[in-house]
Amino acid sequence: xxxxxxxxxxxxxxxxxxxxxxxxxxxxxxxxxxxxxxxxxxxxxxxxxxxxxxxxxxxxxxxxxxxxxxxxxxxxxxxxxxxxxxxxxxxxxxxxxxxxxxxxxxxxxxxxxxxxxxxxxxxxxxxxxxxxxxxxxxxxxxxxxxxxxxxxxxxxxxxxxxxxxxxxxxxxxxxxxxxxxxxxxxxxxxxxxxxxxxxxxxxxxxxxxxxxxxxxxxxxxxxxxxxxxxxxxxxxxxxxxxxxxxxxxxxxxxxxxxxxxxxxxxxxxxxxxxxxxxxxxxxxxxxxxxxxxxxxxx
Length: 298
What we know:
This protein is 69% helix and 3% strand. By secondary structure, it is mainly alpha-helical. The strands form two sheets. It has a two-stranded antiparallel ribbon with strand order 1-4. A two-stranded antiparallel sheet has the order 2-3. It starts with 18 loop residues before the first helix and ends with a strand.
């Protein structure tokens, strides 16, 4: 009987699972909760008004629960069921590559917005007068304060931004060290490299929070603040996700889940982390260094 159900191919036919529909339901609850929360802020309920944040929190916790049980099943498929054959692993790699490419396009949008504002500070296709009034016709914009926000100056790129650049570049080296240690079946090296990478990721997030708290411009009411915080904040969000991703890999490494021949979960996390590193280099070079030049009239 068992022989009749044995696979005669290298592909993985996924068993029926409740987690996709649970994930969709959880995302719906989270989105509705976020809308209710934002609506409650407009009505003056405050950030912690229970009618606002509670639906969002319930949906978010459901998403976390879905992630846990779904990934638990995928690990079981790989380790117990031996369903992740070389062909399946190749297709998983293709999937992660396409996912990262889709993330690249998100950042293309933020860079586009930034360069459109910085290269054409007074010649916008739409709202030309408003843009010229805010920027003064040059980039970086002139110091100004409006009802909705303010701009005093840009960041000095050679202080906290440079420190965060060094931190991320170092973290790229430590995660690569961890990968090479795994390929050599060096368990201690793998754990050390991952632990250092997670610590560096946390340090980056802390320093970026400090940087944001000292920002000489606001998010709202000013085109520089809007483009800066959207680009760097979206990257910071990816750093947090990548840090969690690597922390889970660290826990799995301590448990002994990864082997030199089967460790795609860790490999995907390392790819994602290198993507985060590369995006930051572009952000640092274009927004922090190039964008902090002396204002010159166009």
